[in-house]
Amino acid sequence: MFDAAFHAAVEKLRVPAAGTDVVAPLLSSVVQMTRPRRVLEVGMGYTTPYLAAALVQVAEQVRAESAALAAKTAQHLDTGRKLDTDWLYADPALRAPGFYLDSYQPQFVAVDDLSIPDSSAGQVLEVLASLGLSDRVQVINANIRECRELLPEDFAPIDLAWVDAWECLYFFDHFWDLINPDGGLLIMHYLMTYPEGEAILDYITKIQRARPGELELVNLLEPHKMLQNSLTVIRRTSAGKARSFARPGGRLDFDGELRREAETQAGR
Ligand SMILES: C[S@@+](CC[C@H](N)C(=O)[O-])C[C@H]1O[C@@H](n2cnc3c(N)ncnc32)[C@H](O)[C@@H]1O
Question: Tell me, what's the pLDDT at 243?
């Protein structure tokens, strides 16, 4: 996903004690997989260029896939055929036309108050510039407790929030309502293996029990490390939309909504 020049540029942001060497590429894969439109990072450093670069890559992929999907749909319909498995499996295979009806112009806001001298947050802008990514990140140099009103006006709902600062509880209490209720992700670093973090997990788990349907939660532990060794992935599900095209057995229903979306996406 990233070339040698990228790795060389971001190496100066890698702080071994921050423990995000595996997390940063994992976050970029989450971006590749979930294609968020609004991303918020709290606690900048090594992870910032991975998120920014992944969003750029996804935007390029979406543009290319959208053009190729429209072309394959038009070509298929021009032969007088209905949508079918030949259409589905032709490149770009499996693509859902509805996803491509909205343009993909991701926004990425990164917050850091530069309060930790050992963090590499202060060097992030320089590295982003060297990678040509400066205009892809809106940086807010402020304490997270003061930054809700500093977010861009149209910055909601948030599809992916990544919190790597000592403020996970505050963030959950004051920003959860901004997370997309249709599957938005809140990922928090290092809560599993120290008392305050475990208390936050306990608090969120109690909310999960008290409000059925509100969220899904999974913890990922790096068992070979003593500190900075986990991710908590929380998915907000309070207004999840069904995205099932398939009938029982996995057979697709090519008529109805799918056909309408495919025709619209192909400009028919
Ligand atoms: C552990 S470091 C982030 C590491 C970074 N994600 C990485 O991969 O290198 C935590 C960062 O959060 C910032 N920070 C700590 N408390 C904060 C707060 N209340 N508001 C905003 N930023 C904060 C610090 O300045 C520091 O840069």
Answer: 77
| Ligand 1 neighbour 114 (Cβ under 6 A) | yes
The 10s digit of each residue's pLDDT in 9-38 is 999 999 999 999 999 999 999 999 999 999
Q: What is the pLDDT of residues 146-179, one digit of tens each?
A: 999 999 999 999 999 999 999 999 999 999 999 9
**Is residue 20 lining ligand 1, measured as CB closer than 6 Å?**
yes
Given a contact cutoff of 8 angstroms between Cβ atoms, the answer to whether 2 and 53 are in contact is yes
Going by DSSP bridges, is the β-strand pair 160-163/38-42 parallel, antiparallel, or unpaired? parallel
Pocket test for ligand 1, best of 10, 11, 12, 116 (most atoms within 8 A of CB): 116
The pTM of the full predicted model, rounded to 2 decimals, is 0.96
Contacts of 147 (CB under 8 A, 6+ apart): 111, 140
> Cα 247 vs. chain centroid, distance in angstroms?
29
The sign of the CA dihedral 73, 74, 77, 80 is: negative
**pLDDT recorded at residue 246:** 80
Please state, as a whole number, how many other Cβ atoms lie within 10 Å of the Cβ of residue 246: 9
Is the CB of 141 within 6 Å of ligand 1? Answer: no
Distance of CA 248 from the midpoint of ligand 1 (Å): 47
